[in-house]
Design brief:
The complex is a heterodimer of chains A (about 110) and B (about 120). Chain A is mostly beta strands. Chain A contains no helices and 11 strands. In chain A, strands 2, 4, 5, 9, 10 and 11 form a 6-stranded mixed beta sheet that branches. Chain A is globular and about 40 Å long. Chain B is mostly beta strands and about 120 residues long. In chain B, a hairpin with a 5-residue loop joins strand 4 and strand 5. The chains are: A mainly beta (about 110), B mainly beta (about 120). The interface between A and B is medium-sized, with 20 and 23 residues.
């Protein structure tokens, strides 16, 4: 079965700094999802990528999928305390979503 | 946007009792729903795929007799934790796929189960 590896596992950044979270798959990705979660709450959908080389942006968050469709990155520009939370990448495996272990982001004001 | 609700949002039960958690798609129909559990500081682990009108498909290692899933309508799936034990304490999250839409899954807010 597919495995997703996220790095780093946790990240502390100063407000205003940029950061990148990576997600690497053991298999070719046919749908890669990024979600944000506050601990103890549900998941907030951020973006979905399907095509090799695809890039999407929403506000200060940009997600990319590499040409080989095995790696994705999530980049946050000028981070703010509101960006703090757990970021999860998920892969579509035969219609069900399998998640990476998550990256916990803290933003210091 | 599409909304998925879960009820209850939190529940405390005694060891040996059963607990039912509901997952509803409020403004769309979902032939497929998914149940996940999440332990503190860990990611979501898929437990089972719930299919309307048919038996659920369980992931490897998930006891189907312990975690009963019923998907009786296009907007409701239930997860019953039978004979709950303290190790079943966890955060349970459901998601639903819009039958008429693309591939997005919409997640519920989760249910915190504590077994004492």
């Amino acid at each position: 079965s597919q495995e997703l590896e996220q790095s780093p596992q946790s990240l502390i950044v100063q407000e205003g700094k940029n950061l990148t979270i990576n997600c690497t798959s053991s298999k070719t990705l046919y749908g890669l999802y990024w979600y944000k979660q506050k601990y103890g709450e549900g998941l907030i959908f951020l973006m979905m990528l399907q095509k090799g080389g695809e890039e999407k942006s929403h506000e200060k968050i940009t997600a990319k999928l590499d040409e080989k469709k095995q790696q994705s990155s999530l980049h946050i520009t000028a981070s703010q305390p509101s960006h703090a939370g757990i970021y999860l990448c998920g892969a579509d495996e035969g219609g069900k979503l399998i998640f990476g272990q998550g990256t916990e982001l803290s933003v210091k004001p | 946007g599409a909304v998925v609700s879960q009820h209850p949002s939190w529940v405390i039960c005694k060891s040996g009792t059963s607990v039912k958690i509901e997952c509803r798609s409020l403004d769309f129909q979902a032939t497929t729903m998914f149940w996940y559990r999440q332990f503190p500081k860990q990611s979501l682990m898929l437990m089972a795929t719930s299919n309307e009108g048919s038996k659920a498909t369980y992931e490897q290692g998930v006891e189907k007799d312990k975690f009963l899933i019923n998907h009786a309508s296009l907007t409701l799936s239930t997860l019953t934790v039978t004979s709950a034990h303290p190790e079943d304490s966890s955060f349970y999250i459901c998601s639903a796929r819009d039958s008429a839409g693309a591939h997005e899954q919409y997640f519920g807010p989760g249910t915190r189960l504590t077994v004492t």
